[in-house]
Each structure stands twice: as C-alpha cells, then as structure tokens.
Amino acid sequence: MGLWYCCLNWMLPDRPMLPYLLGLALQSKSDSSLFLMNRTPFALLLASTLTLVSSLPWGTVAAPPRSVDDTVDCDLLIIGGGLAGTATAYEALWAGRTVCMTEITDWVGGQVSAQGTSALDEKRMQRSRLFFPRGYNNFRIRIEKFYHQLNPGDCWVSESCFRPDDAHHILTEQLNHAAQQGQGRLHWFPSTVVKELDYDQTGRLIESAIAIQHQPSPPGPLSHILPDAYTYTDSPRFTKTLLRFQPKQEQWLVIDATETGEIIALADVPYRLGIDPLSPVEPSSSSPTGDPYCTQGFTYTFAMEKTATPQTYQVPEFYPQYEPYFSFELPRLANLNLLFTYRRIWSPTTGEKTGFRGINWTEVTPGDISMQNWTWGNDYRPGTAQDNLVYTREQLRETGQLQPGGWRGGLRTETLRKGEEHAISFFYWFVQGTTDSQLGEGVKQPDPTYRYLSGLDSPMGTVHGLSKYPYIREGRRLIGRPSFAYPEGFSINEIDISAQNYRDPYYKNTLPPSLYEQLWLRLAGLEALAVARGEIPLDQITRRTRSTLYPDSVGISQYNIDFHPCMTLSPPEHPNNTEKEGTRQGAATTYPAQIPLRALIPQKIDNLLVAGKSIATSHIAAAAYRVHSFEWSVGAAAGTTADYALEQGILPYQLVETMPRSNPQLRELQQRLIQNGNAIAFPDMSIFNLDWEAWK
Does residue 200 surpass a pLDDT of 90? Predict the structure, then answer.
C-alpha cells in the first residue's frame, strides 16, 4: 500500500484524498471488518477511485504507442501559427530566442492566410497614424512592396485586400528576417498538432509536450483530416512523426496561440464559452444565466474569379439543404457587384468608378478575384448543444477528450463538415440562386460569369478551394487569476471598452434596478467617490467616456463590438431561422483599449501564456478583441513577456501578483515593449482624457 500511496502522491500532489481512497480500497480487500461495516466491495471502490483518477484534467500522460521520433529543445513553444503566434515568434526571434512553432495547417498567418480573411480590419484613426505594433506595420510595408500597392484587390471594406497564399510567403520571409537580425532560431512545424502535455510534480509547470506531425499536406478539408491528425498511428492518408518538445534550458514558456483556445482546454484551466450571464459589467448580455453554446459564427472562406463568358456548373446535391439561409441581408447591400468587390483581393485591371446606394467601388472586370466572407452567406452559425462547434468542458469530458491520450482537438467534426458544405453552397447561390431569406423573392438574380477557384495554385492553396482552416471569431476565453478586484477571476468586460449609450431606455427598462444602479456606479469615472458618498444622484452621473486603463497593459486594441450571432434553431440553415434574440444588443463603437498582461495569464499553470482571441475577455468584449492588429499586438506582448521572464528567471504571473500596484520589473517589461515599437497605450491615454470622439 505504501508504494501505491507514494506513486499517487507524485501524480496528484494537490489531490490528497485520492491516495487515501485507493489505500482504503486496498485495505478493504484484507480487512473484513471494514468490508462489512462499509458494505463496499474492493472492486467497486477501486474502480470508482481509478475512474476518478482517470478523469482528472492533468497529472498523467498516456504513453504514445511508440517512441517519439524526435525531441526538440525550445525557449518558447508556440502552439498555433496564426497571426498571434506569428507575432509572438517575431518578437522572440528578434530577442535571439529559440522558438518552436506548431500549426495544424501548413501556412503561417492564420486570419490573413490559412483562414483566408486577407482584408485587414482597421479603425480609421489608428490606420491614419499607423499606430500599430512594429511587426504589423512591417507586414503592411511588405504587402505594399510585394504588390507595388497596399490594396491590390481594390476592395472597399479595407485599405488592404490581398491573396492569402501571398500572405503566407510574406510572413515566412518576415520571420526569417527577424531570426537573422536577432540571431534567433525558428523551428517551424507545419501540419502539427499537440496531443499531450506533461507536468512537473506540482502540476503547475508544463515540462514537455507530445505532438503529431502528419505528412503529406492534407488534400481534403479540415473535417476530413481532423480525427486522423490527432491519432498517433499512421493511416492510409498520413505518415505520422511523433515529436517531444521540451525546454532548451531549465525554464521555458508555452504559448497557446491556437484559434479556439485548444491548449487551455487540454490543460483544463478555467475558461468560458459563449454568452456570459447578465451582470453590471456585461449589461447587454442576451441571457440572464449565460449560454455556452452560442459563440460567434465561423466562416470557411473561398475565392472566386470574374470571367468574360458565362460558366456552366454542376450544383452539389447538398445545395438545397443550405439554400434557405442565404441573403444579401439588407436592401442597400442587394447588389452582386457590391458583394463581389467587398473583399476583392486581386484586380489586374482598374475599372471605372461606380457604386450602389452610397457604397462606391470600381467596376468588376474579368480576372478580378474576390474572397467571400459574408454573414448571411458563408458564415456558419450554430448555437445549440446539438451542433456547437467548440466543445464545452462538459462535452469534452463526455467525449473522453480530457482522458490521458484522448485529446482530438476539441471541435465537433460534423459541424465543420456542414460549415464546409454551407460555404460551397454559397458560391452556387451567388451564381445561380433566385431566393433571399431576408429580402424575399424577386431580389436575387443569377449571374453565371464567375468561376470557383480551387487547386494548390489557387488563393486558398487547397484542392477543394476552401480555406485551410475556418475563420474563428470566438473560441474558449480564459478566466484570469482571481484578485481582490476580480474575485471570480480577471476578465476584460463590455463596459471596459464600449461606447454604448447606457442611458438608452433599454437598460433602465430591462435591467433589474439593483443591477442598473451597479452599472452606473461602475461608469462613474472621476465622480466615483462622490457617487459612493451619495453626493451625486444616479440619474446625474456623468458617464466615463474612455476605456478602462490597466497598470499592467502590454498592448493596444481597437475595433467596433461586431457580432455574427449564433442562430436560434438547429441546424443553422433551418428554413426561416433567426439570430438568437438580443445577441446584437451589445454591438457598439468602442474607445481605444489596452491589453492587460493579466488577460494572458491562466490559473493553475505558471509557465503558460495565452495569446490571440482566447485571452480573458467577456463574450461581448471578445467581439472587438479579434481583429488582425489586435492579434499582432497580443502576440508581440506574449513574445516580449516570455523573453523577459526567461531573462529574469521569473514566471509571468510574478509580474502582476501585486496588482493593482505596479512593480519595477513590470515597468521594465513595459518600457521594453515601447522601445521595440509595441505601444501599450494610445496617445494621451489617462484617466483625465475623456475626449476620444476622433478615435471612435
């Protein structure tokens, strides 16, 4: 029994009852009095104990079926090669670090490449001043140099629309340049997923990670390859290489830069999904209790080319299932040329200026290529427990993905498959459809002068023509560490960034009186003390007109709170389906905002940082913290923080454990970010500056 107890104490250091339970089970086998008194057969108690052990989120790692093929040493292990992961690597390479970066696809860049959303979402004032992180500005410069212009697509949604395949090559060169200049080293692992995490005896440090690299590059869409990619054994489709990542020195940092918060789920640290409950900090929530299944819609993008002559099409058999969903959405958008030029990514010939109902563009000419990303088009918006894409913790447990060796990516493969069919169907609606789910009959007219682009030389670089990975607007969202000010864990919330008019009758008429009062107490700004003393009545409080300022800010972000809400019924393409009621209430302009370091630091695990869209935000705040420049800014913060922590021999949480009081090391980190061209605040940001109209 002593050996069992010792082993379990090693595996489960903060679960002291488990060794006791197993010991009790072993003792009951030989102790008849205990057996008779408790009526607990040995087999039953032992089985229940082992079940409890196996259900733990960490502590043991299932051994791979064969030895690893290669062991790689890193200062940083970046899991996810999207924009946030790329930015993390960029800063770490400039600092001379050895960086390992894995990516489920074979492209770097995420949003701008593998996900195909190669139209930069930027706010006007921030863009006019080029007030972006240095790496993001460098990327824009490289686009302009590559095409001899910043907007080779002449799109009207952005200042810059370009081909996703080109973005991958541009970013690859940018990373190589950073490594060369900073004398860092990049180990790039495309087509690679992390399967297991191993921990030290305390359970608070990741000691190594087991990953699977699959070759050759996948020919099919993600739904076809996802289950195979997370399986150790070779398959008819793939040859697998097993990799172990471990620290180059005694200490390393692991960065979750995945699109869905995959590693925070695998590590089972606290996180949220979907709509948060109504509260004083989330007053526009559409649910009193929250809804983990209603996340923002995801999109498989694709590219299509304008042709000089009509094309013939073979409509897929699944098209009728999805046709009832598609729409121009609004009368002022009901024009095919408008929809095509919205995200036009290549235009070899500049046409004459034209427009429709106040929106202007240049005429579509043969050879123009457009990337499609449309809410009532190829967005796929599940919102129920039967079809949600990103599994909740409970669903992960039910499907065995939190068991040792059970991780399979945490996504519902069937929903991915339907999202792929849905996107392909949107192309056929574009060229042949005559229905419109929101505007009715007689609005949509066919136009067969377009060609769907597929093949390895197509903009998406895939045989099937869809993006390699869907554009994910919202996945799992971290819950930061608790503190006096944030007893339930740190988070950036709606009222921290929103410029919403909370005097609108909706809030007074909808919120419970006590909640409405708490909302305005939190919005009081410089009047907070006077309000607390009862010197200013509730209806006379002057609303704070700036974002929340954070003493631990390590980056900047600004974009409108913009929703692509889930649908009410399952499946999303159900005829006459509607968006979940109230989910757009939080949509609003925002004030220039910051990225606090606390939003990157998880509970429980000390050498894990979170970058990208999975930082600690609420559902409504996340709708603004998801665009291209934000991803770069948070990645730059993660890369710089990791480098600084390794240099100082500390862990990231130690930089913020004195919050709200700052400390010398945190200030030193912030100064390094600023010196490297990575702003941590917008110009003139202070509690006294309440004039941000020009930036909104």
Answer: yes
